[in-house]
C-alpha cells in the first residue's frame, strides 16, 4: 500500500474548505436574500434618524436563526459608514438589566468603559444624553434578544428610560429596535401600561425560511466556503432537510456544513458525502441548546445540572439538591425555574399528587446527557 494520497484523497496540506471563516457565527454574509420586505421596513423606520429626527421604534420578531440580528447589523454598518447616526447593538443575553444596557451604551458611545467604581443610573443616563445633545447625534439602540430583559423583569424600566429620554433630557433623540425570538412572549402586552402608552412600534415579522430558500442561502455559503465540487446538490438538500427539522434555524445548516466538511477531511475525502452530514447532525442539532446554556449564570447552570441529574422529579426535591449546592433560597430558585421554562430548556408543569396537593414537576426538554455534556 502506498502512502501517496490518490486523486480523490486529500493530502495533508489540502482542505475541502476554501474559506472556513464563512461558517463562523460572527460572519456577516455578503448577500442577504429573502429578507427584502423586512429590510425595507427597517430602513423606512430608521430613515428619520439620518435626517436628524427621532426614528420610528421597531419590534422585530421571529423564530431563532431567521436573520433578525443580521438584518440589523447590515443596516447598522451602513449607517455607521454613511451617516452621523450612532447605532449600537446590545446583546441582552449578556446585558440583561437596565443598568447593564446603559453601561454598554456608554462604552460604545464614549469608547471607554464607565467608571468601575460604579456610578448611579441617573448619572450614567445623563452623561449619555448630554453627549448626544452636545454633538447633535441621534442614537439607535438595538436590544437584541430583548426577551431576556423580560425574563429578568427589566424590560419596562429599560424601555421607559430609552423612550422618554427626550422628555427627561431635552433634545435627546433615541430610537429602539427590540428583537425577540420568543414567540410565546407578547412583547407589548407584557410591558407596564406607562410604557405601552409611549411605545407604538412598527412590527416586523421574520418568518421561517422554507426549504427552497434554505437551499438558496446555503448554496451561497457553500460556494464561498468550499472548493468547487466538494458539496453536491443531494448533500445540500439533506442539510436543508435537517435544518427544516430543527425549526428552520439557519445556524443548524451552517454548523452542519462545517462539521460535515471536517468529517470529510477526517476521511481524507475531497468531497462531502451524505454520511458526513448524518454524522454531523448528532452534534449540530444541539446548536440551540449550546447557545442557550452558554449564556446562563453560574447559579442557573447549577440548577440545570441538578435537574439533568434528577430528571422528572418533583420541584421540592430538586430545590433541596439545588439549595445544598448553591445556598440560594426559594425565591431565587423559583425565578430561575421560570426563566429556564421560558427559554425552553425545561418544562415546569403542575401535577396533582395524591395527598399532597399540587406540585410542580420539572422535565428537561433535551436529552440529559446532551445537556450535561454542554454545561
Ligand atoms: N438571508 C440570509 N442570508 C444569509 N445568511 C443568513 C440569512 N439569514 C440568516 N443567515 C445566517 O444565519 C445565522 C443566524 O442568523 P441571525 O443571527 O441573524 O438570526 P436571528 O434571527 O437573529 O436569530 P436569534 O433570534 O436566535 O438571535 C447567521 O449566521 C446568519 O449569517
TrEMBL record:
InterPro entries: AAA_22 (IPR049945), Cdc6_C (IPR015163), Cdc6_lid (IPR055237), ORC1/CDC6 (IPR050311), Orc1/Cdc6_arc (IPR014277), P-loop_NTPase (IPR027417), WH-like_DNA-bd_sf (IPR036388), WH_DNA-bd_sf (IPR036390). It comes from the Archaea. ATP binds at residues 66-70, 209, 221. Residues 303-375 form the Cdc6 C-terminal domain. One of its GO terms (biological process) is DNA replication. Keywords: ATP-binding, DNA replication, Nucleotide-binding. GO terms for molecular function: ATP binding; ATP hydrolysis activity. PANTHER family: CELL DIVISION CONTROL PROTEIN 6 HOMOLOG, CELL DIVISION CONTROL PROTEIN 6-RELATED. Involved in regulation of DNA replication. Belongs to the CDC6/cdc18 family. NCBIfam families: orc1/cdc6 family replication initiation protein, PRK00411.1-2, PRK00411.1-5. This is ORC1-type DNA replication protein. It comes from Halomicrobium zhouii. The lineage of its organism: Archaea, Methanobacteriati, Methanobacteriota, Stenosarchaea group, Halobacteria.
